[in-house]
Amino acid sequence: MNTRTHLPVTHPRTARAGSRKDDRGQAALEFLGWLPVLLLVGLLAVQLGLGAFAAQQAGTAARAAARVVSDPDADMGAQQAAKEAVSDWLADGTDAAPPNYWGDGVTVTVTVEVPSLIPGFDGFGTAEKSATMPAD
After folding, report:
1. Fewer Cβ close by (within 10 Å): the C or N end of the chain?
2. Of 59, 100, 96, nearest to 81 (Cα)?
3. Main-chain phi, psi angles of 88, to 5 degrees
């Protein structure tokens, strides 16, 4: 005689303790939990890009200012040349130090304020670059 004990057939998803109804919305809650972290990482990446852009603009402004100062026929100074060489939205935070003449060359140092994505927070400092050109 073959007597078997028949076990109830269960679906693999519901075979564990609890039911599927307990997991409803879990993915949405996990996403909401990670959302601030993802936004912060994205904000930091964009802020890092703004810092790199400000450094590139400072280098461009320093070269332009040194080129203008080295030309005796130029009709503008280092400050004006530096401000005109950067993007319009960075011009207000751009400053050129007085040119440093030495031998037969001139060096100009330009600082550009790194813009902040957080309104009212200006704690990201400045980008500073120098350029040297031969003086005529």
Report:
1. N
2. 96
3. -55, -40
What span, in angstroms and rounded, lies between the C-alpha atoms of 31 and 80?
50
Per the document, the length of the chain is 136
Long-range contacts, stretch 69-78, CB < 8 angstroms, 24+ apart: 69/99, 69/106, 69/108, 69/133, 69/135, 70/105, 70/106, 70/133, 70/134, 70/135, 70/136, 71/136, 72/136, 78/108
- Mean pLDDT of the region 34-56: 93
How are beta strands 94-96 and 100-102 bridged, if at all? Answer: unpaired
Residue 67 and residue 132 in contact, taking contact as beta carbons nearer than 8 Å = no
